[in-house]
Predict the 3D structure of the following.
Amino acid sequence: VEAEDPAAFTCEHGGISLKDVGFRYGDGPRALDGVSIDIEPGSMIALVGPSGSGKSTLLSLLLRFYDPEAGTMEIDGREIRGVSLEDLRRSMGLVPQEVFLFSGTVADNLRLGRPKATVAELNAALDAAGALGFVQKMEKGIETEIGERGVRLSGGQRQRLAIARAFLEDPPILLLDEATSSLDPDSEALVQGALHRLFEGRTTVVIAHRLATARRADQIYVLDGGKITASGTHATLIESSDLYRRYWTLQSLELEEREASAD
């Protein structure tokens, strides 16, 4: 049910509450089964788990690409199915794994969420995202054409433009499908620095492919088979969750091998 008054909802705090949420795609198995999460305003939670565990489905439900079959989903105490899509999505910023950039200029792509943003505001967002330096070196700066899907940019540059776009929109809630795992170490470090600035003062839900990101979360939720199998801080999960401990060990070994090959 959509809100009767589209202007009735403004997200002021960013608290999120999910209670016994269930969902399945068509006739398939449950992608989410009885998921309950409470997220305090301004805090950061991380979702970790194997492919197909329900992490991306959870973000899709928060954005109302789909509605849950069971349970409730609230933002600031308001059931999201009673809120207009425009109001709901205005309250959230999404930095996806596959960055959406279209054929046009840097400025065009940044203004996607704020069409009337000034040049000064664009530059401030680029600076916060660690992207101002490389954009200023382009032939026409922010008026440089970047090509379809940003083909003229590196993976790290595309990610930083997506982060700059989120800074410009300045949403109270940030949804992040972390995509730093495919970047080279230097680009990953730059993107991680920009992300940490973006997290400040926002409620953040991050799908953490790198557990180094999850480690910084206030609360980590381990999903497997559509269910939460464990939750807690990094320190408690290392002790209590076999799945989380296995992921941490594997990624630590991978990092050691990468560092050894770089020497």
Remarks:
- The two ends are 58 Å apart (CA to CA).
- The longest helix spans residues 242-262.
